[in-house]
Give the backbone structure.
Amino acid sequence: MEVTQDLSFIHLIANASILVQLVMGLLLVVSLLSWWYIFIKMFAIRNEVRLTEELEEAFWSNQDINILYKQVSTNALADQGALERIFSAGFVEFVKLRKQHGVDASAVMEGTRRAMRATYQREMDRLESHLAFLASVGSVSPYVGLFGTVWGIMNAFRGLANVGQATLAHVAPGIAEALVATAMGLFAAIPAVVAYNRYAHQINRLATRFESFTEEFSNVLQRQP
């Protein structure tokens, strides 16, 4: 009964060395932050996909682009999706250049594409925010946990030097508390890696849809009288 108590999870953490406890604390904080960003990105990407589908549906329903722009511009900037901002930037730049005298059609379209490309880059930076953190957690956390494990095992074997006869009862607690650090490293890394791969794939698909829309919208503007 006492062995079970000695090898309980809380007891192992409480009796670990200071450095191993610091490693565990760091991994716990990193894990909580990664879960926070995982949920933030999940809702953000889901909302972005919904807004993108809504704008594409409105755009391809043969709706007048002037009316569509008025509908988009009535939304608050914070409520607009990435594709809506790209559409608005291109339309505003197109109208502004068309009103200028001496600007030929090719210059108008080139300026419109540049405006949409600049907005596209800003929106992609916004969508990809926090992904680098998840990638770092997924790649570094196992090694941080392994460092805590190695240090804990070293302390466990150093403690055996003062014991006349080493038994499993002497070795097991030190090794078990050291392995907890590895377990915590994996617990932090696995969800971060899975989330990063999934979100990176979804963002790449959105980027492809944004680029396709930019080209199609440029073609529509080019046909404007």
Notes: The mean pLDDT is 85.
